[in-house]
Amino acid sequence: MKGDTAPNRSLPLPAAGGWPRIFYGWWVVLGAGLSSVLDGAFFYYGYGTFSALLAAEFGWSKTALGGAISLARSWQSLANIGGGYLADRFGPRLPMAAGSAVTALGFFWFSRTNSLLMLYVVLVGVIATGLSIGHTVTPFTAVGNWFVRRRGLATGIAMSGVGLSGLVVPLLGWLMDVHGWRAGALAGAVAFLAVGLPASALMRHRPERYGALPDGAPQPPPQSPAQPVAEATASAGQALHTPTFWLMALAFAFRNIVSTGITVHLVLMATDLKIALVAAAGFQAFMGMVSVPGRLAFGWLADHFDKRLVTAACMLQMATGVLLLALAHQPWHIALALVVYAPAYGGGATVLYAIRGEYFGRKAFGTIAGAMGAIISLGAATGPVLGGFLRDATGSYQATLLLFAGFCLASMALVLPLHRAPRSP
After folding, report:
1. Which of 75, 194, 78 has the alpha carbon at shortest distance from 128?
2. Strand partners, 28
3. CA distances from 348 to 23, 156, 229, 298 (A)
4. What is the model's pLDDT at position 195?
């Protein structure tokens, strides 16, 4: 099967019908954004709401519930390598469609869960696998291939879907408050089929396959040599042999300890302050919405300024927001902390794709993203279980948040000394 990686010849893009002719890369951004909405609403943000109801119904500890999502993230750290390779080898459409179907099956099975063991099997073996194949790396590999000069902004727009998914979380919380968490899981299954499959149909691989150039750059005159956008062309092997790869991976692993830990535990932090579940889920929505301007702004900044400095600024702002969250004792304290934290949290996710694309290029974008994601996701796996363990051990989240602020500062310190990877001749 060749997907959309057949021999190098120009293929037609889907007709736009009555719509104005626009660069097809923006349709790819739309498909990636829809993928982000699904991932954010039902897994990344949504798991916090699920976990609160699971704890209430079954009496499972915060450590056990945090461990389930942590193990799922650990498996994603390995499966992302395969997902990135499939996106490079076959293009994004088939992996994203297959991943949507597998994830839908996982959420259906989740709705039938009655034991902690079954929860772990479903989250790790099915849902995390489906997301790794179709939604974690694949859509953003497509975006990274269609944009070079505007990669930061394009990625920021696509990742705004994660922020906008926060609008779905209160609705999900309401649905589960009225009909139970099993209804929420079934809603996830329906959504990944009804939205994920159509979104996958928008995906295309590299623009050169369709007679276009990255960013919609004009084609050169027929007798003139092409002037490609200057970019790195590292293979996966070349990238893995550079200190830049490992420093970048470790920096963003530290960042993901914080971002995933807070995302999973935010609802539980709010309920610890005696805030009702629906209102606590509203903080997830608020964090998601406030992250959207940060995704766009930091994406634009990454396109125009030194990406190391932009990334370091994200980490410093994240640390400040986390410290404010540690001091929170009232609902408005949480809101104020999120106003500082959320734009940088969203911006950090955007600049990762921008800085990695600048240093290593498009040649093996998905494979490099998957390999780095394997390391970064270990941080995502650590955050929820570490947060739950410290909360259970100390009776509050304050120690967790102080440690998380330290991880943000460590991430900033690792980003600043980065050196550019060598370019192939």
Report:
1. 75
2. none
3. 26, 10, 25, 8
4. 94
Q: What is the CA radius of gyration of the chain?
A: 21
* pLDDT score, position 251: 93
- pLDDT, residue 184, reads 92
361: β partners: 233
**Residues 26-71 pLDDT 10s:** 999 999 999 999 988 888 777 878 888 888 888 888 778 878 887 8
Q: How many CB atoms lie within 10 A of CB 198?
A: 13
What is the length of the chain? 425
The identity of residue 139, as a single letter, is: P
Q: Which residues of the chain have pLDDT under 70?
A: 1-20, 219-231, 420-425
Q: What per-residue confidence (pLDDT) applies to 216?
A: 80
The Cα 304–Cα 255 span in angstroms is 23
pLDDT of res. 341: 96
Contact, 195 vs 31, CB < 8 A?
A: no
Question: How buried is 180 (Cβ within 10 angstroms: 0-12 exposed, 13-18 middle, 19+ buried)?
Answer: middle
**DSSP β-bridge partners for residue 233:** 361
What is the reported pLDDT for 40? Answer: 83
CA distance 175 to 181: 8
CA neighbor of 123 nearest in space, from 109, 133, 137, 144: 109
| Closest by CA position to 216, among listed 392, 378, 28 | 28
Estimate the share of the chain in helix, then strand, then coil, as percent rounded to the nearest 5. 75, 0, 20
- CA distances to 40, 127, 261 from 383, in Å: 17, 19, 4
Domains of the chain in sequence order: 25-219+230-415 (1.20.1250.20)
| Selection from 73, 69, 76 nearest residue 120 by Cα | 69
Residue in the block written with tokens 């766009």: 296
